[in-house]
Amino acid sequence: MLARVVLCLSLAGVSAAQRETVYTIDLNGGRVPGLEVSRVETPAGERRTTSVTSINGREAPLETVEERLVSSGPDARIVERTVVRYSPDGRPEPAERIRIEEIRRPDGGTTRRSTTWRRDINGNLQPAGRSVSESRPSGETRSVIERPGAGGVLEVVERATRMERGNTAETVTFGRDANGSFHPVRREVTSTSVDGNATVEDSTLYTPAHGGFEPAGRRVVRTVTRPGGLKLREIEIYSRLGAEVASEPRLQRRVREEESAGPGGTVLRITRVRDPQDEDFRVVRETRIEPH
Q1: Distance of alpha carbon 104 from alpha carbon 20, whole angstroms
Q2: Arithmetic mean of pLDDT over the chain
Q3: 192: domain range?
């Protein structure tokens, strides 16, 4: 699949542009047309448009996202986001509005509230969901997700607690059952280490089993930053797919993303994957980023 991404930036009244072209490689080594994303940024907001390129070369819009900075100060920042999605025949669907508020509290913590509205069949905006998170200086963050319940009133359907201690973060998520009670549904532990110009992030996902939690998946990402900001990222993905019930997650895929510098400030990013049945890495995506 070929995805062409055009990024246009405007900072302090001076325009700068960047074109990013992504080629997804099929099993035969061919490149197939796909998505195109354009983005324009200004100090006051951002507009992003996503479209799809069909086999015959025609482009159809998929989604437009427009963000507007409502207010910004030392203790609060408010952003409004408008999302319009398009039907397969290119017709725009009712707009979705999202208001994101970030408030710095006197105790040094931060409250972030994101509220979503969608239009009903009569064209009126109705609350469709809300997420609220509160971080504390101690490293603890508590968050809730709300969805419309009976009568359209927002009700909490999920809770989560995240605790950061040094280079380790643990997140426990609680889901709501049919009786309204909350039970733990997943636990994730992430550790981060730095060795010179390399950063390693190791995350393990646990799910309920036998009255407690058992590891269900793991993801290890090692990122090396080279001169000029070029990155080499190596990813290992583990899961219990095909593993015995009592076994640990097994390595299912390796991903390697490597950036190299080209002429005129161009950056080429090659993505390769290696599955257990593969003898070596195979190229699945090529991304070309060039000034425009």
Answers
A1: 36
A2: 87
A3: 187-292
